[in-house]
Amino acid sequence: MSAPETKAEDAGSKDGVALLKVEGLSKTFHGKAGDVKAVDDVSFEAEKGEVVVIVGPSGSGKTTLLYLIGSLERADEGRILVSGEDICAPGADLIAYRRKRVGFVFQFFNLVTALTALENVALPMDISAAPSKVQGKKAAELLERMGIDGRLQRTRANRLSGGEKQRVAIARALANDPEIILADEPTGNLDSATGRTVVDILVRLAREDGRCVLIVTHDESILEVADRAFHMADGKLGARAKE
Q1: Which runs of E-coded beta strand occur in the chain?
Q2: pLDDT tens digits along 30-78
């Protein structure tokens, strides 16, 4: 994996407001076996151009944290500020937030298997009512950037390899030009060589595009690309020094 080219202390928004600021975030799930506090008073910041890595075992709460930031789950307590705007506040336009400001990359890709790679990437643009000509052109350009071109663009998702599927998924996450990329175990379903390629792509999205990339993973080796690194256990987030 490529080493970081920037440091956390060098990144930052020009107006002094962090791109992403999480304050006192908590989430408890209630079940027959009892309550589980999946996220427990979590706070951290992240800036444009940064790669933030959160490592932790299965069940540590890291995926729930990612889903809260992406507004796929609602927090019980705390705030999530994006460029100073609290997406947890009553009346926040969460549909617009999910469509325009965040892009998701999932461990199991979550592609529509009956659609081609090109159609999968165009789908978020279609949902956002982008013109059809724009959809096709931009989808092709994003796939080419991910190394998916020619015949592969017209191949159904269920016929692609794991690495190809994840690159299509990253292209799809970029379809509406989000500021924040949320990657949930992006290498968890890939072999080590393909996983390194995927991580390098995510790092380039931060370094070259200035996006904020947040990766949650159990893979400690991904820490080497992080500008900010954290460990998560039992719902709590702690700063982690990189070796």
Answers
A1: 20-31, 34-46, 51-55, 77-82, 85-86, 102-105, 180-184, 212-217, 228-233, 236-239
A2: 988 889 999 999 999 999 999 999 999 999 999 999 999 999 999 999 9
Distance CA 26, CA 68 (A): 9
d(CA 134, CA 199): 28
Cα–Cα dist 179/170, whole Å: 14
| Pair of tokens at residue 156 | 């159904």
The DSSP output letter for 2 is P
Those residues with Cβ within 8 angstroms of residue 7's Cβ, 6 or more apart along the chain or in another chain:
227
Q: What single DSSP character describes residue 156?
A: B
Give the number of other CB atoms < 10 A from CB of residue 108: 13
| Paired residues of 212 in beta bridges | 180
- Exposed / middle / buried, residue 216 (Cβ in 10 Å: 0-12, 13-18, 19+): buried
DSSP 116: B
Give the whole-angstrom CA distance, residue 194 versus residue 218.
16
Gap between the Cα atoms of 137 and 132, Å rounded: 9
Report the pLDDT value the prediction gives residue 64, as an integer from 0 to 100: 97
Alpha-carbon span 111 to 161, nearest angstrom: 12
- What is the Cα–Cα distance from 214 to 42, expressed in whole angstroms? 15
| Predicted model pTM | 0.90
Give the CA diameter of the chain.
52
Radius of gyration of the chain (CA): 18
